[in-house]
Structures are given as C-alpha cells and as structure tokens.
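Feature request, filed as a ticket because there's no other form

It would be nice if the structure record came with a short human-readable summary line next to the tokens. Right now we just get the raw output. Example of a typical job, pasted below so the devs can see what we mean:
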Amino acid sequence: MKTITKIICCVLFLLSGTINAQENDICLGKENIPTIDLSQEQNRHTIIAQGTSEIYQGHPYSVMFPDKKTIFVAWNINHGGNAGPMAKSVDGGLSWQRLDNKMPPEYFEHINCPSIFRLVNQEGNEFLWVFTSQPMFSRIVSEDKGETWTEQESLGFPNVMAFSSIVPKNPGIQDGKYIGFFHRRVANNGEILNKEPNVPGSLQVVISETNDAGWTWSEPRTIAALPGKDLCEPFAFWSPNQKEICCLMRENQHKGCSMVSFSNDKGETWSLPTETSWGLTGDRHIGTYLPDGRLFFAFRDQAHNSSTRGHFVGWVGTYDDIKNRKTGQYRIKLLHSFAGSDCGYPGVHLLSDGTIIALTYIKYKNDNQKHSVVLTRFKICETDDLFKNN
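Raw output as currently delivered:
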C-alpha cells in the first residue's frame, strides 16, 4: 500500500506541471460576482444547540429523509472534540428534539466531526449511519429510523476525518452500492498516518466503497493528491445527466482557490484536480440541486480578498459553471461569524415547499458565549429577486 501511494504521488507530480509553481491570478485576486447579505435577518434563524460560556457546539452534519421534513443532525463538543449530541426535526428544521439519551455509551468516546448518512440496501432496508474520525473510523447505526442506536466495529481506516460525502454508485438504482469520500494524511515517505499531525506530509482525498449499504467497506484508495496542496473535506455529487461525478475539495493551505476533480466511470478513475472559480473557494462544501437545475452550495468562505472571508456563505450557479470554471451567478452571506474563520461544516437541504435550509456551527453573537449550531432558511426566488434588483 505504501508503494502504491508513493507511485500515485510521483505520477501526480509529473502530471501537475506548473500547478504548484504559481497560483492562478484569479484565485489571488477577486472575481466580479455579486454578494447578497441575509446574515442579519434573524427571523430566518433557528438555534439548534445554544453555545454557552463553557460549551462549544461544533462541526455538525445532517441528513434529510425522503419526506423532505425529517432531519437528523449530529455534532461534537469543542473543536474536533467528543461526539454525543444529536437532534431530530420533523418539521423541516423549525423545531428540534435532542436525542443524546438514545446514543450508545461508547459513542460519547468517539472524537471529531461526526457525519450522518441514510443508506438503503437492495431489499429496501434503510440504515442511519454516523461515522466519526476516532478511534480509527468509528461508527454507530440505527435500523429503525433513529429510534435506537448500536455501536458497530470501527472500520480501522487511518484518517483525519471520516466520510464527508457518500454518493450512490448507481444513481436512481436502489442496490446498496455507495462510494464514500474522506481524507487522510500521508507522510513524505509514503506512510499513511492516523493521529500523527506533526509528521511532515500532505493531505489526500480517498474513497472506499460499500455493496451492502454501509456494513462493509473496501480498502480505501487515493483519488486526489497534489504536491504543494493539501486536499481534504471532499463533497461529491452526480452531474445532471448522471454520467459524471464531481468532487469539490477544500485546499487546506489556502494559497489559491478550492479544487475540483471529475470521474466518468463511477469513481474508478479521476481527472487531475484543478482549481475552482474564485466564488467557490471555501472549506467544507455541501450543496443541493435546485428545482430549476441550478446548484446551491454552502461553505466557509476562504476566497482571497473577499469581503465575506471567514463567514458562512452560499454560492448559486450551474454545473457548467463548475465544470468550466465560470464565475457562477451570485453568492449569499448566510451567517456572520464572530470568531473569524471558525464556522462552516454545513448541512444543506431543499424542503418540499422550495425552502432551502443551511445549518452550521458558528459564534453567533459578539459576547462570551461559544459556538452554537444554527440554521438559516430562505427560498431561491427571494435571493433571485434581490440579485435582479441589486
């Protein structure tokens, strides 16, 4: 495995050409894309978990059921700290019920950025999975729509963070086959690291596959690595024609734009990662298709010279914009962060009435209270009108 990783890194280095030699001028400058500000409209906001002077609510991830109103969100306490908190909404995020007392006791020892997914097997049985970074890609599962939860054997994958994205391998077909995306650190000598952050190395995006809706997973393999870049927190989704997978990635050195890669063979091979547009530059992208075919993504803004850098923002554009590195239509300042670039890790969902909800962890007020998990809501017709009248 170490030899394969070394070979991949060498090949990517040869292919990368001048990617690491100079940053794109657009990424270090500023694109002309309008920004709409909804961040001060508190009537849009719902506090899911209130931070206090002692408690930091961090790094949420959410999943919505097909009814487009039932939502689960899981998060951890403190920055990259212990898991345990979970909440459920049955009204599209307007009200929330805490589920912490339903969690297995082992779950409170899990650490760092829980992510939650609903996976369905060939027989139609659905499973709610929560994956956490440590110990060694831990997980819990519910087989009854979140009523009860059990601890499962960890996957044993070295990682920096567990799955940040899972997509069906065959979209539109219920067969239990999924591709999971996460990132790990690899030392300069090719060794795959787990909890050794001070060892010199780089971040790489990897995938693992399941054929049984999350119970077993294949050995992870690298799909994106570039010298001079730290690629992480991948978000993958299928193209409108369901023939291509697009994978957006955070670039953790923040020297240029974010990165993107594509696969036309269901994840078997991937294009060399290239930079996104300036407007899509950020950390931890998560998004959804809109009814008219456009895309909405939420993320922590990391675009150079951006007036909203460090805040929780959204981007509206098309798949063609991403594919061809176009600007996009407009951006939205969703929430204001009073803690600099310590927010993001969003959940994004499109409700049946067209409402978009975007949730994150954020220092919501300029006071002594630490981060809260907060949700904001809007309809794309509202922001379209503001864009047209801007």
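Something like this underneath would help us a lot:
The longest strand covers residues 178-187.
The helical segments are 2-16, 25-28, 319-323, 380-388.
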